[in-house]
Inverse folding.
C-alpha cells in the first residue's frame, strides 16, 4: 500500500543527521500558499495559510499552522507538536523561538539554487519584524547545503521509485522499437511513446503529462524541439530522449537508431564509429564516477573520449543528477569553473542518482549520437539502473 509519508519520514531522519554533522540546531521553513518548494518534500503536505516548521536536530520538530491547516500536519507523525495561532503567527512563533533558543538556525535562502531559496523576501522581512533584525542575523545561516544534500542523496524508497521509473522507460522504449517502421514521421513515433505512457498509467517527466519526448531525425536538426512531420527514410539517424515520472520521480534515458539503406546489414563506418565513441565515453564515465569525485572531474573523463574520437567537444554537461526533477539538485557533471558556487565542484556522494550522456554532436547532417544511461552511486562505484544500449538499434527499410 502506498504511504505518502514514507519518503518524508526517511528525509527527516536524514535531515537530523545532517544538522548534527554540520552543527546546526535546526532548519526553519516559513511558507504560505505553497510558496516553499522543499516543505511538502519534507512533510508530505503543504500550507494554505501562513505556517512555520521548525526541524530540530534533537528530533523535536514543531509545526505552527492556522487552525484550518492544523489537521493535515498530524497524521505523518513527524511533528512532536502541531501548534495553532488565532490571528497572527507571531503570537505562537516568538514563544516557540524563545523556548528553542537556537544558536544557529538554517533558513531557506540561497543565491544559486531555486529549490534552496524558498523563503520569500516578504516573509524574511516578517521574521525580522517578529524577532528583531539583530537577533535573526545572529542565528541565521543558509540552509542551501542541507537542502542540497536532502535532495541529492536519495533514500531507499526514492531509489526504488527511480528504479521503477527507469524500468518503465526501458519497457516503453522496447515497445516503441518493436513498432517503428521506416517512413513513419517524428510525430508518429512520438505517438508511440504517448500510447506507452497511457497504457502504463504514467506520464512524461517533462512538461505536460502526455507531451511528446524528443524525437529527432538528425538531418532535420538535433535540438530540444517537438517532433515534426518529417518522415524517416533509409540512411537516417533517429535520436530519442524520454523521461517517465513514477510517484514523483523522473528517469532520463536517450536512445539512437539507424535506418538501414537497401543492401545494408550494418551501419556505415562513420555512423558506427560515432556510436562506439558515445558508448565508450559512457563506459568511461560509469567506470570513473564514484564517491568523492568532483563533478568537473567526471565531466572531463567523458569529454576526453568524445574529443579523442575526433569529434567536437560535448556542448552540454556530460551528465546531471535526476530525482524529483529531470535535472535535479546535486552535483553538475560539467566543465570546471572558477566560480566557487558552481555545483560541478561538489563531491559526489553515495546514493545519488545521475544521468550520463556524453554526446557526439556535429553540424551539417553529419552523424550525431545521443545515448543516455542512469546510474546510482554505491560505495563500490556506479550501479547501472537502465538497460544499457550497447549497439545501435537497426531498422530495416524496404525499397519502394
Amino acid at each position: 500500500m502506498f504511504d505518502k509519508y514514507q519518503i518524508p519520514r526517511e528525509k527527516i531522519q536524514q535531515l537530523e543527521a545532517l544538522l548534527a554533522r554540520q552543527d546546526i540546531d535546526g532548519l526553519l521553513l516559513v511558507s504560505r500558499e505553497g510558496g516553499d518548494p522543499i516543505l511538502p518534500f519534507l512533510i508530505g503536505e503543504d500550507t494554505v495559510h501562513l505556517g512555520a516548521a521548525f526541524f530540530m536536530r534533537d528530533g523535536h520538530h514543531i509545526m505552527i499552522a492556522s487552525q484550518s491547516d492544523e489537521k493535515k500536519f498530524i497524521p505523518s507523525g513527524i511533528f512532536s507538536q502541531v501548534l495553532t495561532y488565532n490571528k497572527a503567527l507571531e503570537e505562537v512563533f516568538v514563544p516557540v523561538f524563545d523556548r528553542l533558543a537556537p544558536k544557529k538556525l538554517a533558513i531557506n535562502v540561497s543565491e544559486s539554487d531555486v529549490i534552496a531559496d524558498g523563503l520569500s523576501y516578504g516573509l524574511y522581512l516578517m521574521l525580522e519584524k517578529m524577532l528583531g533584525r539583530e537577533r535573526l542575523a545572529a542565528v541565521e545561516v543558509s540552509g542551501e547545503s542541507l537542502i542540497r544534500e536532502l535532495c541529492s542523496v536519495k533514500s531507499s524508497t526514492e531509489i526504488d521509485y527511480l528504479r521503477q521509473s527507469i524500468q518503465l522507460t526501458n519497457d516503453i522504449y522496447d515497445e516503441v522499437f518493436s513498432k517503428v517502421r521506416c517512413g513513419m514521421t517524428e510525430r508518429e513515433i512520438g505517438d508511440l511513446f504517448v500510447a506507452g505512457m497511457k497504457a502504463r498509467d504514467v506520464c512524461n517527466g517533462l512538461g505536460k503529462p502526455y507531451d511528446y519526448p524528443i524525437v529527432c531525425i538528425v538531418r532535420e536538426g538535433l535540438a530540444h524541439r517537438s517532433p515534426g512531420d518529417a518522415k524517416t527514410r533509409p540512411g537516417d539517424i533517429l535520436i530519442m530522449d524520454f523521461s517517465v515520472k513514477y510517484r514523483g520521480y523522473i528517469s532520463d534515458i536517450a536512445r539512437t537508431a539507424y535506418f538501414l539503406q537497401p543492401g545494408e546489414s550494418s551501419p556505415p563506418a562513420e555512423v558506427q564509429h560515432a556510436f562506439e565513441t558515445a558508448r565508450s565515453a559512457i563506459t568511461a564515465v560509469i567506470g570513473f564516477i564514484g564517491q568523492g569525485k568532483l563533478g568537473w572531474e567526471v565531466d572531463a573523463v567523458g569529454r576526453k573520449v568524445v574529443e579523442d574520437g575526433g569529434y567536437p567537444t560535448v556542448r552540454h554537461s556530460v551528465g546531471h543528477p535526476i530525482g524529483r526533477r529531470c535535472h535535479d539538485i546535486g552535483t553538475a557533471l560539467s566543465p570546471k569553473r572558477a566560480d566557487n558556487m558552481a555545483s560541478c565542484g561538489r563531491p559526489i556522494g553515495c546514493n545519488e542518482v545521475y544521468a550520463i550522456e556524453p554526446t557526439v554532436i556535429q553540424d551539417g547532417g553529419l552523424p550525431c549520437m545521443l545515448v543516455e544511461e542512469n546510474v546510482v552511486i554505491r560505495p563500490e562505484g556506479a550501479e547501472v539502473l537502465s538497460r544499457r544500449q550497447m549497439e545501435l538499434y537497426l531498422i530495416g527499410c524496404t525499397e519502394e
Observations:
- The chain is about 35% helix and 20% strand.
